[in-house]
Amino acid sequence: MTTLAFAILLVASLAAYALNRRAATGIRNGGARLHSVSNYHGLFALLLMLVPVLVVILAWLVLQGSVVNAVVMGGLPDGTLTGLEKGQVDLILAEIQSIAGGRVFGQPEPWKLAAAERLTELRQLAALGLVLVTALLCLAIMIIARKKVSAEFRARQGVERIVSGLMIFCSVVAIFTTVGIVASLAFETYKFLRLVPLTEFLFGLNWEPQIPIRADQIAAAGAFGWIPVFVGTIVITIVAIVIAVPIGLLSAIYLFEFAPKRIRAVAKPLLEILAGVPTVVYGFFAILVVAPAIRSIGASLGIPVAPNTALAAGGVMGIMLVPFISSFADDALSAVPRAMRDGALALGATRAETVLNVLFPAAIPGIVGGVLLAVSRAIGETMIVVMAAGLMANLTLNPLESVTTVTVQIVTLLIGDTSFDNPKTLAAFALGMMLFLVTLVINIFALRIVRKCREAYD
Amino acid sequence: MTDIPSGSVARTTMDMVRGSLSRRHRKQFILQALGITAISLAFLMLFILLASLISTGHKAFTQTEITLEVFIDPEEISAERLPRGNFDDVLAAALAADLPSVDPNDRAAMRVVGGILSNGAQFQLRDRVVADPSLIGQTIALSVPVSDPYDQLRKGLLDRETPESLRRLDDTQIAFYDRLIEIGAITSSLNTGLLTNADSRFPELAGLKGAIMGSFWALLTCFLISFPLGIGAAIYLEEFAPKNKLSDFIEVNINNLAAVPSVVFGLLALAVFIGWFGMPRSAPLVGGMTLALMTMPTIIIATRAALKAVPPSIREAALGVGASKQQVVFGHVVPLAMPGILTGTIIGLAQALGETAPLLLIGMNAFITSAPATPFDSATALPTQIFIWADSPERGFVSRTSAAILVLLSFLIMMNAIATYLRSKFERKW
User: Per the CB < 8 Å rule, is A435 touching B263?
Assistant: First the structure.
């Protein structure tokens, strides 16, 4: 039925296009001068129909489910739902839905069967209604649009107004996304902070989210202090940056200043491959190759290394960030004006001295911006650490031990079936909020530095 | 008076320069050597990464199979009871015929014999008999996969030298295997199941079809949403937007969205799409919508760069002959920028294809044994399937994971190759 509604809309809008175009051509052939070309008259009718009816159909589809459910639940015999909790009501609804879907388990009560029947009826009614409403709207708009066709009608301006409205809507989606992120995180974090005090979350030194699900279950009491998780993130980020920055910078300097053209033509795309490898692949690489290698090196040196040491996750993350840093450094070095370089060389500086003493200091802001963006990526990187880092929060600065990160905790807390009123779930959103804020501050700062650096020599 | 003490100063400067020259050259040499070391280190890592994936993954592209002469015993399988029947017993009996040392009445030994075959073998036989019930009572030749430990044994991943108690196969089982090799029943064939089967608990049956279909639906949704929205936003911001606070704010927003950690988008999708709008969990539709939000900034940035590259003379010429602003943009600028826009879109989609974390949060890591037929069905995606397999304890999944990664990487390489081709073929230098 939904497909039918879309088909009606498509056919009707094409028909409206043809109708208006014919009408406009007819007026022109009658000797009148049209304000707009007849094509625009057709396009105007098309857009006038397509945009609002599409919005109506999509809104109908989004709302249909919950409205139908509400009507069915409201139509249950009096007293069946009194005194029940929200979870139990949801369970009844789910059972009615599965009966309506033809999956009957056991012997349901007759009122449930009746409700299921009603649900099926309502669903059919709603689908029928959608088609009917679509058809009527299309017809009405087609008549309205047809009436507009005249020699003076400014169809082009009309089309352009609609198009620019659509484009503004597209641009605003970016704002909606940001608002959506902030609103959803803030809302869930607020719910979390009603269960766990803010001071405990921000300054607590224990992170043990394994809380009992049922009252009689034996489990840890649950502690939600984010400090150990945060410290773990910092440890892994430092390992990654310590590896990525020297390798990235040195290879950028080499490629920029010393490498022959042919080597550069090969090396740059090869480095880009490192950047294009999905992070889940790096995670698998870390557990398959890097972690066992580090452990065997540790064993041969007599140093105890945890099986999921921060070195493995951080090291692989460092490799992932090498092309990121080297491309930022390359951009920053290229942005330095040629005159500075030529001046240094003319004074007799060697190429190494030119790069290190003239170009590099001038490019520092851009490079720092790139490194900061790399830091923010390392903090937000998820799959490598989910696969290769630890799950237990461990307050330590030793990279040989196993630590956990903010992103690991978010994923492990939310994987599988989750309900939204559980402190475990909400804790993940609180961690997400902190992650978002930290990376946002770093990003804004870094983007500003990079832009300043670019402007400095323009 | 005009007699300048010639040379003395100059000579000392030159001497200083000459004296320090070798030191300075050495410094340059060291810097160069460090640079070469750094870049070789990066390439070494890339090489190790690819080499380890290929060396573990190539083994999953073949599958050990066993060819059996199966007598479909009417006593075990009757036409009336189809699709039920003791297909596993029939197969074990067929296998025992090849292994003279086994007593067909010893139930424990027969169970061991049955364990040689994959759990999927009986379903393969069942499907064949259900399709043609006249086979009952006949003897047919059947090739079925062996179970994972035997597959590992053939591929050399199971060491015969390990003490028996630590091995997954004991000496009798290995003797069975050697006997089957001797009579030539065991063969190895191209593992088409890797691409045509959906996920399974048994490594020898697990395939990527569900994941590939899931990724396809998610990417299609992602493209249908992010492409029009991204292009619309980019054209507006680049060509029409007035320079005011709102446009600046939108611009800052887009740049920041491009750098927000992907897992945060997963949280957004979980809270808004699944929590508030009540959309189905694990559906590629929701995954695609999430990926669309992440891909949009990439597309916007690429589109704006492509629009910027179109020279102003084109715009001015069109404006000069009386075109309206929108006619200029949609009739002239956008078509010229299209190759750049498409390249950026494909690269954005390639990124989306490899994205894992947000899909985990919306539940696209479920265990699902059938490929999704629509974007509303529960499914996994390629990267989440890799994650699931990497987490599985069975040895057989290690090479499957590497093989799945190789499949994912080949898709990515294909997309990037198309993007590079488009750029080199259609991009114009003005």
Answer: yes
